[in-house]
Amino acid sequence: MSVCKLDGQIQKTRITRMYSFEGLKRVEESIARPGDVLAISGVEGIFIGETVSHPETPLAMPKIRIDEPTIAMLFTVNTSPFAGREGHLVTSRNLRDRLDRELLTNVSLRVEETGSPDALKVLGRGELQLAILIEMMRREGYELMAGKPTILTKEIGGRLHEPQELLIVDVPESYVGVVIEKLGIRKGKMAKMVNHGSGRARLEFLVPSRGLIGLRGEMLTDTKGTAIVNSLFQGYIEWQGEIPMRLTGALVADRPGTATSYAIYNLQERGEIFITPGAEVYEGMIIGENSRADDLNVNIVKEKKLTNMRASTSDEAIRLVPPRILNLEQAIEFINEEEFVEVTPKSIRLRKKVLKANQR
């Protein structure tokens, strides 16, 4: 057979097996008929958009256009004090080899060098796609750190442009106002609204891609899990200005140790806690969300002083508010530019890029 490459070259190759499909089974075939859907094996170095054609008269089909990546994330080696405890694939070589293998099958993914041997820039179609890749890697035993998703911009006609998405939201009528308000803050423009009279409405918005970062979690909360959301790439538009993201700071551990109930109880009024009593922490690890805009270094390992003096109220049981345990997607949505998500096979932690408080 001939393979018509994307650059116009014709490469001769040999197919070792050919299969057709009957239900869920693959059946080996020796003859291909017009209209058959077939799977072939034995062809090396073939990519999406290239054509397998007749050996004597090769003819290339029109190239398949794949949407360009719109979001980039930094994947880097885990450098936290807990590195290497839970995963066995922790080096930059392991990370690079795994991403190279992913590129062979994941056609909308790209990987770029960053100038550092320990970090790679991974480009994809959305934060969910990259979160799925990270989840697959952690289940395979990898440890890594992921940075905040950033938007890929373009210079068109001397002006800065950013990717735009067509966002389709199907939501109960009672939450229409909430959705419009939420997307208005994120520079979304309503293009269409249809009410079918069934109690649900369908809204279409044109939104900058960066306005969708962190939207899923907020939308689920505001609509009590009833919204159905889908987005499609819609080209590039001029830069739409600043979009407010996280308005709160973080509670950051100021020393290593084990989190205590006593310390968590005293910090609850400062904000929302992300960890449980008994969790190990290190300096620079984010243990909660501050109720104010700035970061706050806190002592989460403080223990109650034991004395011989007793009071009538001193030994009462303390009541802790249940912590907000973040999953991978929520952690990626929460962090800002100065923070990383530390991902291991057993844990998801948030941390500052610079761990030492006096260097931050």
Which key features would you list for this structure?
360 residues, 16% helix, 5-stranded antiparallel beta sheet, alpha+beta, 6 helices
Could you characterize the architecture of this molecule?
- The chain has helices at 92-105, 127-139, 176-185, 215-222, 261-267, 328-334, and strands at residues 2-4, 10-12, 17-22, 25-28, 39-41, 51-53, 71-76, 110-113, 119-124, 144-146, 150-151, 154-156, 159-172, 189-195, 200-208, 228-238, 250-253, 257-258, 271-273, 280-281, 285-290, 296-298, 339-343, 348-352.
- It is α+β, with helices and mostly antiparallel strands and 360 residues long.
- Strand 12 and strand 13 (159-172) form a beta hairpin.
- The longest helix is centred in the N-terminal third of the chain and has 14 residues, at 92-105.
- The radius of gyration is 26 Å and the shape is globular.
- The model has no long low-confidence stretch (mean pLDDT 89).
